[in-house]
Amino acid sequence: MQLSKFNNNISGPIISEFETESGASTAGRKTFLLIDDEPMVIDVCELMLKELGHRVLKAYSGPEAIKIYEANRDQIDLIISDFNMPGMNGQEVVDRLRTIDQRAKVLLSSGGVSVPHEEDAIAKGFNGFLQKPYSLDMLSDKIAQILN
After folding, report:
1. How far is 1 from 21, CA to CA, in rounded Å?
2. What is the pLDDT of residue 113?
3. Which among 11, 38, 76, 95 has most CB atoms closer than 10 A?
4. Which of 94, 92, 85, 130 is nearest to 111 (CA)?
C-alpha cells in the first residue's frame, strides 16, 4: 500500500473528477471530506470509508479543506476533521464552515484533543465526536448517528 504524499493542491478535487467503479452500487453512497495533517490517518480513514462504499475527498490543512468544501458543498454529506492541526485547527475550521453553511455536518475525530466528551464537541459546534483510534464499526455507527 502506498501512502499519499502531502498535497499542495489547495484548489482540491471536485466531485466530477471521481469515477464510479464498475458494478459498484451507488445506493446509500455518501461523500466525505477528511481533514487531517497526518497523511497516514487520512489513508486509514479513507480505506474504511471506501470499505463502507463511500466517496472521499481529502484535505491536509484547514485552508485546503475550506477550498474543497466551497467547491463541493452540495455534494459533501459529512466532514470528518482532526482538531490539532497547524495553522488552522479543527475549531477554526468548523467556525469557518458555519459561516459558509450552517447545515454542514462536522464530526470531530481526534486522539489528543482538549474536548474529551461528545457534549463538549457539540457545544463547540461539531455534530459529534469520535476518539482516535477507532474501528470500522465505531466509524460506521457514528456516521449513521449523525446522518440519520
Report:
1. 19
2. 59
3. 76
4. 130
The pLDDT score that the predictor gives to residue 124 is 93
What would the grid cell of residue 67 be?
477550498
Q: Are 91 and 124 in contact (CB under 8 A)?
A: yes
Contact criterion met (CB below 8 Å) for 6 and 29 = no
Contact 75, 49 (CB under 8 A): no
Higher pLDDT: 15 or 144? It is 144
What pLDDT sits at residue 22? 34
Measured distance CA(137)–CA(148) in Å, rounded? 16
Give the three cell numbers for residue 125: 459546534
pLDDT tens digit string along 125-137? Answer: 999 999 999 999 9
For residue 19, the SS3 value is: coil
Residue at grid coordinates 440519520: 148
Q: Where are the domains positioned within the chain?
A: 29-143
Measure the CA–CA gap between 135 and 148, rounded to whole angstroms.
20
